[in-house]
């Protein structure tokens, strides 16, 4: 199992319950969309999986990534740093070091295999540099390698962030709203690259998205969160607008309209019961 979550709950110090008793299994090689309206708990869930946040101290609660325990009973495990080095993270805000060349940003993915002084001196072995150049070529921005990260467009920066996970050799990639700040064309490219590394490298990809159409187009499986609970977990093709409305009520508009605006169209009320065939079909894995 690439990802196993059992009995995960999270109540913040301010009393806000962000996650309620989440159970979720994701097999190696799946591509899964995590959807939900703003505040439904998507980022909080991914942060827990990354071991960046400890869940509530619930007896028997547990998160495992690639068979290794990240946290148990609300306690992050000591080996989390090592586990984290095997998981690729892609964030909405790219998380590149602006002033460093794109190539060096991508090479950061190799640091977990190298002695500490390599990062300090930025003196990377030729084999790792080659790997980084290849990764940049795979995401279509090889020519940007020497440029400072700050000179890249948002879409190019996100592709560089994905190249970093390729160099890392991550078998599990967690992407938290990776296209939320991108234009439609860049969004499509980023989703296609994620789908490709899933398909070609057998990576498990979990991607949180606001845009339901992107989820349906690229992810065979959708997990929908609402107020910190899993309200749907199943095939993307069965998630109709009518079902979304029954799950989310008024908040369904946010998810449905997010998709309309993504295509540059004015947000329009979604059909109450569009036939499944009217929805974009997920690409074959
Ligand atoms: N550090 C925190 N302290 C208190 N409440 C928090 C904290 N982080 C998140 N929350 C609350 O937890 C809930 C879930 O937030 P989260 O960011 O996970 O949602 P989301 O689905 O990722 O939303 P968005 O799509 O807007 O990013 C929200 O109500 C949010 O206000």
From TrEMBL:
All copies of domain ABC transporter, residue ranges: 3-252
GO molecular function terms attached to this record: ATP binding
InterPro entries listed in its UniProt record: AAA+_ATPase, ABC_transporter-like_ATP-bd, ABC_transporter-like_CS, ABC_transpr_PhnC, MetN_ABC_transporter-like, P-loop_NTPase
UniProt cross-references to Pfam families, sorted A to Z: ABC_tran
Keyword Methyltransferase: no
Record key words, sorted: ATP-binding, Cell membrane, Membrane, Nucleotide-binding, Translocase, Transport
Lipoprotein is among the record's keywords: no
Record-linked PANTHER family: AMINO ACID IMPORT ATP-BINDING PROTEIN (PTHR43166), PHOSPHONATES IMPORT ATP-BINDING PROTEIN PHNC (PTHR43166:SF6)
Protein name in the entry: Phosphonate ABC transporter ATP-binding protein
Organism in which the protein naturally occurs: Acidovorax lacteus
């Amino acid at each position: 199992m690439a990802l196993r979550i059992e009995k995960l709950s999270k109540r913040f110090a301010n009393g806000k319950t962000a996650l309620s008793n989440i159970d979720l299994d994701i097999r190696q090689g799946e591509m899964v969309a995590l959807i939900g309206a703003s505040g439904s708990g998507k980022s909080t869930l991914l942060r827990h999986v990354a071991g960046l946040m400890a869940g509530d101290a619930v007896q028997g609660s547990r998160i495992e990534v690639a068979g290794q325990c990240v946290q148990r009973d609300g306690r992050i495990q000591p080996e989390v740093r090592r586990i984290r080095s095997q998981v690729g993270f892609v964030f909405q805000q790219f998380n590149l070091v602006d002033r460093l060349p794109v190539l060096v940003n991508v090479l950061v993915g190799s640091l977990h295999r190298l002695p500490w002084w390599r990062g300090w001196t930025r003196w990377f072995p030729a084999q790792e540099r080659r790997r980084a150049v290849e990764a940049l070529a795979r995401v279509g921005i090889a020519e940007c390698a020497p440029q400072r990260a700050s000179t890249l467009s948002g879409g190019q920066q996100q592709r560089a962030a994905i190249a970093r996970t390729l160099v890392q050799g991550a078998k599990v990639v967690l992407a938290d709203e990776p296209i939320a700040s991108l234009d439609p064309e860049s969004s499509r490219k980023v989703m296609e690259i994620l789908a490709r590394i899933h398909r070609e490298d057998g990576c498990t990809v979990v991607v949180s998205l606001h845009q339901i159409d992107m989820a349906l187009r690229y992810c065979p499986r959708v997990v929908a969160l609402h107020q910190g609970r899993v309200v749907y977990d199943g095939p993307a093709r069965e998630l109709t607008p009518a079902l979304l409305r029954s799950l989310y009520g008024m908040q369904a508009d946010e998810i449905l309209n997010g998709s309309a605006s993504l295509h540059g169209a004015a947000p329009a009320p979604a059909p109450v019961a569009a036939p499944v065939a009217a929805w974009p079909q997920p690409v074959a894995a």
